[in-house]
Amino acid sequence: LEVSGGAEALSTRLLGLFGEKRAPLAMGLTGLIFGIPVFFDVGIFVLAPIVYAAAKRSGKSVLLYAMP
């Protein structure tokens, strides 16, 4: 991305959309968007125990916490 100039183009566009003051928000959203497909399987394994614990504690269905 850096060699092709894509990183510069993305940062210019994001700063144009969000502005200088909201640059951290832009970077956070970008990380979220790009991180989901890359680390999706890791997220499942990390979040699964939390989902089960929340469902057990509340007495509600696991699907209530797992689907959103």
TrEMBL record:
Keyword Transcription regulation: no
InterPro entries: Glcn_transporter
UniProt GO molecular function: gluconate transmembrane transporter activity
TM ranges: 32-55
Top-level taxon in the UniProt lineage: Bacteria
Pfam families per UniProt: GntP_permease (PF02447)
Keywords linked to the UniProt accession: Membrane, Transmembrane, Transmembrane helix
GO cellular component annotations of the record: plasma membrane
Record's keyword annotation contains Transmembrane helix: yes
Protein's recorded name: GntP family permease
